[in-house]
Specification:
Blueprint: E1 5-7, E2 17-28, H1 30-40, E3 48-55, E4 58-65, H2 68-71, H3 74-78, E5 82-90, E6 105-109, E7 112-122, H4 125-134, H5 145-155, H6 160-170, E8 173-181, E9 184-189, E10 198-201, E11 207-210, H7 213-218, E12 222-226, E13 231-236, E14 239-244, H8 256-261, E15 267-268, E16 271-272, H9 273-287, E17 294-297, H10 303-313, E18 321-323, H11 336-341, E19 345-349, H12 351-354, E20 358-363, H13 370-381, E21 386-391, H14 413-416, H15 419-426, E22 430-433, H16 436-443, H17 451-454
Parallel strand pairs: 17-20, 20-21, 21-22
Antiparallel strand pairs: 1-19, 2-5, 2-11, 3-4, 3-5, 6-7, 7-8, 8-9, 9-13, 10-11, 10-12, 13-14, 15-16, 18-19
Length: 465
């Protein structure tokens, strides 16, 4: 009898965070709309969820640890009425997993209130924090996002719009921000556009900001466009105002959004995630011809690439692994111990499709390699004659500093072993990764952040400050 596979959630590039914002002309249930949007963005973070509502400029925040569905109740949402709101779902890439670090962060001072929700990671936060502390600022969290809100508060005497513009010009790293201040909804994207942020609108004239277009779809909105690299958008009763706060902007969005992070029904910077994954599978099939009976994908992010691989290779696509759709409470507040015990997601082999077959299995990426080794083991245990492993991304050899929780470099299998050594380690008959060139071609643009693959980053890393 085959044992179920428990995927190690630390064997993947971990999600970053998800942000959402809404501005309406009049008061309505903005908290409830934000909740549904966060539900659509839940894949980007499961540790905490929060919503801040602006009621004619007066802010109130409700947040807690766990999934959005566990944090919010009908009663709590009924109290989140106003004309604007921002929301956040968190995976901790900076700071500990505790309620103090849950977002949005809110600050009240003599000139008003401000709330911030942040997706990404700052590379110079330590330096700025030390300067602010020297100036008398006190910090209550361990996350770099608090640096942003303290900077805005420090500069607010010049007006909130200028304070935000000046603050984001001082910080370095990857960030997509949604901000409530001065009865306005403000969105900001870093000068390299690494973290995504999209603008939407409803048929009633409401405006939205979201990490992914799927959140706007979920509440019946229509996507207008993406926020540009180095752009700040100010949304109020007069509509949208655009400010380019950084002239040194160049688009280098994160390539892993298309490989793994984003939902397949999202479109980021004009590129449909599902279609890019299917194309990566087609290109992967053309790289190395193989004689096989069935192509299977690792649920869920490996499936579109497997469909593309089957289409290009002529090998039939089939289902080989069944995913338990129930996600247990280990996702709600994962401790380090639970992560290491690897009890996140269960997969079972569909033996009837695998027994006696030469199997091509497609996964989106290989980070530490422990899950890949178990996948090969379970497919062989189901009676497969051969197992050919394919990855729809290049080898991950370097750490990410911009809002993705990757392993230390010495834990990355591809940084320590050759492809042939990895093949032997995971016990596959053959192994192939999508080339960097083919990955970029599958996305359809040439300028992306590929630092985790090649070690060349679009901006300074923390080690360089």
């Amino acid at each position: 009898m085959n044992e179920p596979l428990f995927l190690n959630e630390r064997d993947k590039m971990e999600e970053e965070c998800g942000v959402f914002g809404i501005y309406t002309a009049g008061k309505k249930e903005v908290g409830e709309l934000t909740y549904y949007a966060l539900y659509a963005l839940q894949h980007r973070g499961q540790e905490s969820a929060g919503i801040t509502v602006s009621n004619d400029g007066e802010l109130s925040t409700y947040k807690g640890m766990g999934l959005a569905a566990d944090v919010f109740t009908k009663e709590s949402l009924n109290n989140l009425i106003g004309n604007a709101a921002i929301g956040h779902v968190r995976y901790s890439t900076s700071g500990e997993s505790r309620i103090e670090n849950a977002q949005p962060l809110e600050n009240r001072f003599k000139l008003g209130q401000v709330a911030v929700a942040h997706n990404g990671n700052l590379t110079n936060s330590k330096i700025i924090k030390e300067l602010l502390e020297d100036g008398g600022a006190s910090f209550h969290t361990t996350i770099d996002s608090e640096v942003i809100i303290k900077l805005i508060a420090r500069k607010a005497a010049n007006g909130f719009e200028e304070a935000i513009r000046s603050s984001v010009s001082a910080i370095k790293g990857a960030f997509a921000l949604v901000v409530l201040a001065d009865n306005k909804l403000i969105g900001v994207r870093d000068p390299y556009g690494i973290r995504p942020l999209v603008i939407g609108k409803s048929k009633f004239g409401d405006y939205y900001l979201a990490s992914e277009s799927c959140a706007i779809d979920a509440i019946g909105g229509e996507v207008i466009r993406d926020v540009g690299a180095g752009e700040m958008v100010i949304i109020d009763e007069n509509g949208i105002k655009s400010v380019v706060y950084s002239e040194l902007n160049t688009m280098n969005p994160c390539s892993f959004e298309y490989i793994y992070f984003a939902r397949p029904d999202s479109t980021i910077d004009g590129i449909n995630v599902y279609l890019s994954r299917v194309e990566s599978g087609r290109r992967l099939a053309r790289q190395m011809k193989i004689d096989a009976d069935i192509v299977i994908g690792v649920p869920d992010s490996g499936i579109p690439a497997a469909i593309g691989y089957a289409e290009a290779s002529g090998i039939p696509y089939g289902i080989g692994l069944i995913k338990n759709k129930y996600i247990g409470r280990t996702f709600i507040a994962p401790s380090q111990e639970l992560r290491e015990q690897a009890v996140a997601v269960k997969l079972n082999p569909l033996k009837v499709n695998l027994e006696g077959k030469k199997v091509v299995i497609i996964d989106d990426s290989l980070v530490r390699g422990t899950t890949s080794k178990k996948l090969v083991e379970i497919i062989r245990g189901a009676g497969a004659k051969e197992v050919h492993f394919r990855l729809a991304s290049p080898p991950v050899r370097f750490s990410c500093y911009y809002g993705i929780d990757t392993a230390r470099r010495d834990e990355l299998m591809a940084s320590q072993l050759s492809i042939e050594e990895i093949r032997k380690e995971i016990n596959a008959d053959t192994l192939d990764y999508l080339s960097l060139e083919n990955m970029l071609e599958s996305i359809g643009k040439n300028a992306y952040c590929t630092g985790c693959f090649c070690g060349e980053y679009p901006m300074c890393t923390p080690n360089e400050f």
